[in-house]
Amino acid sequence: MALWGGRFTQAADQRFKELNDSLRFDYRLAEQDIVGSVAWSKALVTVNVLTADEQIQLEEALTVLLEEVRANPRAILASDAEDIHSWVEGKLIDKVGNLGKKLHTGRSRNDQVATDIKLWCKAQVVELGEALHHLQQALVATAEANQDAVMPGYTHLQRAQPVTFAHWCMAYVEMLARDESRLKDTLTRLDVSPLGCGALAGTAYPMDREQLAGWLGFASATRNSLDSVSDRDHVLELLSNAAISMVHLSRFAEDLIFFNTGEAAFIDLSDRVTSGSSLMPQKKNPDALELIRGKCGRVQGALTGMMMTMKGLPLAYNKDMQEDKEGLFDALDTWMDCLNMASLVLDGIQVKRPRAKEAAQQGYANSTELADYLVAKGVPFREAHHIVGEAVVEAINQGKALEELPLADLQKFSSVIGDDVYAILELQSCLDKRAAKGGVSPQQVAQAIADAKARLA
Ligand code: ARG
């Protein structure tokens, strides 16, 4: 039965009911709605709407309902209740009769739904934080195992300077660490209870809203009732956290898809996260990574959609805001799935060291080293840059690497070049020299790994 029949003489059109009802998605808020209702029943004792005995009866029935919901949340979907709030109230009345009809005193679905979503978001923040943490740990472990795996580093997708697979992994650790800290930051603004704000103007029952907030595990109660029922900033913030993090995961996926091409062939992916072709027997496609990259799009869509839903809304609650849930649920589920999938992909990754090193040796990725060598011999950097550019053209013409040019050929470009240049042009020297904080030198990467391990412990 609907919660609001009295004023109406005609039943709702079935087509309107289908558009209006939200149970098919907001059933996911059942736990939060029940927990919020228990707290509300306690508040109603403090304002003498319920006796202590009545409250105990309600709480017991709600606790049984919570167990039923936990055992089988999808059973809720069999009901034709309008939304999860109507469903919980209906079930309560089934269990305790008329007493159940007292629960909604002084409360509105507007403060109720705002509370439910915030409670749900708080639980998600914890779980997503753990998944972000776990993925960082997986990246650090992969880095640790691949400190000696040299590969080309790119700018403009052109080979630029040699790096290690470990250094690449640690770059994504940084991005995910920022994602995790953004989540923590979001929690500080999310952790404020709207319950007791009523439909929009506040509840008429003089309760202690701070105490009520505390019962629900919120840090405090909101300050303005109009804002409380119409604020969905926390949904927007979580969606933007998801959107940013999914961009990181998408770039991670794209890098690995490229490393896995036949042309690059720096890595092998596990059979557990790849699939074959129905026609081409030789194929092993990086589907898990492509899906991470692809699913990034729908998360950006959820954020943009919700921004547009909110942008013209007058205060206070409007039914438009019911549109917050499907995008939020989908985006956070997707984010979680992709974080877990990224960990699984890393778990089975093999770096093909000889091939990755060979690629790092090609593409004149040690040109900067030659310029720095000239600088050390007193040539101003801009001049050195020009000289090396000419040497690279010569090497390209001869089909050789810089270090394969005979000394006499190199000396045509600068007489300061001596025999000691060849050691400088070695890959290992290119890595070793980048020893300032954050650089790719083995000591710096080892330090970064040790620091991250300590942070993540
Ligand atoms: N299902 C609604 C939502 O998700 C609950 C609040 C409805 N409030 C109302 N006055 N119709 O936003």
Automatic annotation (TrEMBL):
Pfam family, any one: ASL_C2
Coiled coil (residue ranges): none
Organism whose genome encodes this protein: Rahnella variigena
Taxon lineage: Bacteria, Pseudomonadati, Pseudomonadota, Gammaproteobacteria, Enterobacterales
NCBIfam families in the cross-refs: argH (TIGR00838), PRK12308.1 (NF008964)
Stated name of the protein: Argininosuccinate lyase
Catalytic activity, as annotated: 2-(N(omega)-L-arginino)succinate = fumarate + L-arginine
CDD domains per UniProt: Argininosuccinate_lyase (cd01359)
UniProt main location, coarse: cytoplasm
EC number in record: 4.3.2.1
Argininosuccinate lyase C-terminal domain sequence ranges: 364-431
Gene Ontology molecular function: any one: lyase activity
Pathways involved: Amino-acid biosynthesis; L-arginine biosynthesis; L-arginine from L-ornithine and carbamoyl phosphate: step 3/3
Start and end residues of each Fumarate lyase N-terminal domain: 6-301
Family: In the N-terminal section; belongs to the lyase 1 family. Argininosuccinate lyase subfamily.
HAMAP family (alphabetical): Arg_succ_lyase (MF_00006)
Domain of life from the UniProt record: Bacteria
Location in or out of the cell: Cytoplasm
Alphabetical keyword list: Amino-acid biosynthesis, Arginine biosynthesis, Cytoplasm, Lyase
InterPro entries, alphabetized: Arg_succ_lyase_C, Argininosuccinate_lyase, Fumarase/histidase_N, Fumarate_lyase_CS, Fumarate_lyase_fam, Fumarate_lyase_N, L-Aspartase-like
